[in-house]
Amino acid sequence: MIASGTSLELQTYHIILHGLCKNHHTDEAMNLFNTISCQKENLEARTFSILIQGMFQAGKVNAARNLFNSILANDVVSPDVLTYTIMMKGLIKEGLLDEFDELFLSLKKMVTLQILLCLSYC
């Protein structure tokens, strides 16, 4: 569909990305992400969250970090509570507690309620 020039809604891309990541096709998911990021002006934090979670599940910690850092460097999309929660869970599962601590400390800039929500999911 994409190759034929058919444009899909962002929610449809989210479903496809989630399915690819869930079935360990993270390289294909990244290729699709690169394609839609060129086509769609308004990516959402959810788009990144799906990919970050997929990368952690596939054991691709560096790829997850790079995606998260690309959100932080991006002025258009901001990480949301879900994105932070996925990052924190992934770092804990990988035993990267120093990185978890750094990320947690950076959350002080967020609203207290959002911090509590993140912690309740970890």
TrEMBL record:
Family (UniProt): Belongs to the PPR family. P subfamily.
UniProt KW keywords: Repeat
Entry superkingdom: Eukaryota
Pfam families found in the cross-reference section: PPR_1, PPR_2
InterPro entries: PPR_P_subfamily, PPR_rpt, TPR-like_helical_dom_sf
PPR repeat residue intervals: 80-110
Gene3D superfamilies: Tetratricopeptide repeat domain (1.25.40.10)
Taxonomic path: Eukaryota, Viridiplantae, Streptophyta, Embryophyta, Tracheophyta
Name this polypeptide is given: Protein Rf1, mitochondrial-like isoform X1
